[in-house]
Amino acid sequence: MDSAAPTATPPVPPPATVDLRRAFEESGVAAVLEGLERELIGLKPVKQRIRETAALLLVDRARQDLGLARETPTLHMSFTGNPGTGKTTVALRMADLLHRLGYIRKGHLVSVTRDDLVGQYIGHTAPKTKEILKKAMGGVLFIDEAYYLYRPENERDYGQEAIEILLQVMENQRDDLVIILAGYADRMDRFFTSNPGFRSRIAHHIDFPDYSDDELLQIAERMLERMTYHLSNAARGALARYIARRRAQPHFANARSIRNALDRARLRQANRLFEGADGPIDVAALSTIEDVDILASRVFKDPVADE
Is a pLDDT exceeding 70 seen at residue 3? Predict the structure, then answer.
């Protein structure tokens, strides 16, 4: 007796609805955004753009679940702003977010500059660039000061070769790599004008504003808290004056300059305690930055100092 032909299993129809709030919670995106809030003071427009990007990707994934036509969104980005405004930190969080939503396989960040991509002689650039791209695949490649990739004033510059390789990968392997270009806003504008291939492949342009004086003071206190230090009341006032003076001087780099200032204040504090020690020192003394540790900075003596 012939056996009956196997019955084909009918395809499972896509669901009729999707719960975006539940998808948001289950993806872990909420934890990424909360971490960004904890790590970074201010930057409200940046955080809003990250939330909007997360919403776009959640909806894109929901459309896929419901069987709607979709195309993988272009996720390459440009971060513009002055040094020390949190661009690298946000790039790290963006890599985590994209991984949690399934848009990149690994979620790691590879941070590079021109020197990591461009060679010194003929035949050197392509293998350098391809090696970096190999490391970055499945994650995010963050190129800081991207406008230095090509120097047209130098006839022997090999940056154009790196640019051509990057453009090809941005187009052909965008499902497996997200590239973030970063740098000063005005220089990035000129770079995009002279390299329209990059502009056409960048979907998200995010500008990082400078921090206010109050935000920089909050950043300083948070940095010290992580190192189990704190400012005395007098030191807090001194640091506020330092910030107002320092940001008007050359080479100011927002949070980066504040971190450097705190390192020097800790150095002065340590020297003050060592030189003045005539007995045991308690936890309070070891943990407190005093106003003298701030006011000894050259910023209060030299109008063009950048200490």
Answer: no
